[in-house]
Amino acid sequence: MQKRNTELKGLLKMVKLISADMDGTLLDSNKELSPELFPLIESLAEQGVRFAAASGRQYYNLEHIFEPVKDKMIFIAENGSVVFENDVNSFANVIDRETVQEIVKEIRKITGASPVICGLKGAYAESDEPELLENIKMYYRRYEIMDDILAAEDDICKIAVYDYVNAEINSHVPLLEAFGEQMEIAVSGEHWVDLSNPGWNKGTAISKIQEKYGISYEETMLFGDYLNDYEMMKTGKYSYAMENSHPQLKEICNYTAKSNDENGVVEAIRAYFK
Known about the structure:
By secondary structure, the protein is of the alpha/beta class. About 30% of the residues lie in helices and about 25% in strands. It has helices spanning about 1-5, 35-45, 60-65, 95-105, 130-140, 170-180, 200-215, 245-250, 265-270, and strands at about 15-20, 50-55, 75, 80-85, 90, 115-120, 125, 145, 155-165, 185-190, 190-195, 220-225, 240, 255.
């Protein structure tokens, strides 16, 4: 306890909220967290600094990964559409049922793409094809394979597209053309595109948390690596693009952290609070 308090003794003056993406940021290439992360989160909590995991992943997936420290964290799930704290849903932005139907029908027309709709109870997919199923299991702890996902009885907060080819050049373009004016559309990985209600993204979620706790732009630190982190990076002064980040993300961030395989997030936090 004493060691952790000493380690972060410089916390008092500045940053009050730290938010970090998961895949490509907190998780290394083997999808593992640094063993130093949980003790660091505990140290931050002791000093009144809130730590948020901000991801396109499902809340139940994040909760499981961070089980030992989950009561000391905020979870921004489904790319900002859902926020949980202390196992309570702080807010969720639900997509209109007719809009869900329209988008799913359009995704079904795209060659090499498969829709996954994400609700408060779980995620729903129409195929158990091995590659898709492997990815669903990676990001969603609660899921169901259905003949028709539009029959799912749930409040849908995000529509994901798994692209077997390349999300940025295959699925993203037609979806942007069809729904770019009415939906928030983000490429969240090489094979994933996420759609949510307009104006709702990781950045929106951070703004809600800042407002709730009276935390300013100057008191916020952020870490990310991909395009679904873009808006989040604009919400804080201490915005760090990982060394392995998408070039467009590096352009808007104020700082660079070492790569996700070099414990970049933990090292940057410790360096700041020396």
